[in-house]
Amino acid sequence: MRLETATSRELVSRLKKLMPSGVVFKHCDMLTKGIPDISVSYKGRTIWSEAKYIDDVTRISGDEKKYVSLVPKLDVDGVQWELLRKMGNGYLVVYTDYGSAFTHVNGCRTSVSSIRLRLYSLESVAMLMLETVKASSKRAKEDV
Questions:
Q1: Where are the alpha helices (DSSP H) in the chain?
Q2: CATH fold for the domain made of 2-135
Q3: Please, are residues 81 and 70 in contact by the beta-carbon 8 Å criterion?
Q4: What is the pLDDT of residues 54-64, one digit of tens each?
Q5: Contact at 8 Å (CB) between 44 and 87?
Q6: In this structure, are strands 45-53 and 90-96 parallel, antiparallel, or unpaired?
Q7: pTM of this structure
Q8: Contacting residues for 48 by C-beta, under 8 A, at least 6 apart
């Protein structure tokens, strides 16, 4: 848990530096279950993400350890998954000792057995998050 907290804090710091015109929050609420860990807002659009740390090295694969297998039923609480899915703009940020991953949450948690995710640097994950919220903002403008 400590590594997840420290890495999330570092990610939030990178997001704020990369997007000074946006709003980035690290939500800390130990009493309410299901509130995503991080929100990123830009021009009226927000994405929400839940951070998860996976330390099971047997789920790291590929040359140079480039992938992690996320098992939703094991790694993500049902309430958290369902809230992110219902939001439509909910994501998971997965931390490992070999890198981090970012993925959209959709589908029923129990119907997804395993998701193979590409591992990136934390800086690259921050960039993916910014591109995602900016693309969401751009699509919203086009819908008006």
A1: 2-18, 72-75, 78-87, 122-143
A2: Trna Endonuclease; Chain: A, domain 1 (3.40.1350)
A3: no
A4: 999 999 998 88
A5: no
A6: parallel
A7: 0.87
A8: 36, 38, 39, 84, 87, 89, 90, 91
